[in-house]
Amino acid sequence: MFTRKNVYIYRSSNMPDEGWLHSCFHCYAITSHLLRIKKKITFNAIYNVEVYVCLHCRKKLSENDDLYATFYKRCKMYMKRNIQFY
Ligand SMILES: [Zn+2]
After folding, report:
1. Ligand 1: distance of its center to the CA of 2 in Å?
2. Has residue 14 got a pLDDT over 80?
3. pLDDT tens-digit map of 17-43
4. How far is ligand 1, taken at its centre, from the CA of residue 45, in Å?
5. Which of 14, 35, 52, 53 is 20 to 30 A distant from 69 in Cα terms?
């Protein structure tokens, strides 16, 4: 049976870890908006990785493929260093 796990990526800030407001991964503004960047299925779990991105950055990223590619690369590096999928 699969377990569903949500993993959230955001910049460190003075917001509490348990809260729903965090720092935008791109510009550090406080936001509640999420962007799913990865779905990973392992032998016993489904991981949804979502990154906090404010609406302003979401619009900029959706309009500029090069900017999105750089942003996604940064997210991938963060995931590689900080998230272990079991
Ligand atoms: Zn932002």
Report:
1. 33
2. yes
3. 899 999 999 999 999 999 999 999 998
4. 30
5. 14
**Ligand 1 centroid – CA 47 distance (Å):** 24
Q: How far is the CA of 27 from the centre of ligand 1 (A)?
A: 4
Band (86; pLDDT cuts 50, 70, 90):
confident
Q: Ligand 1: distance of its center to the CA of 7 in Å?
A: 19
Residues 6+ apart with CB under 8 A from 27: 54, 56, 57
CA of 85 to the centre of ligand 1 (A): 27
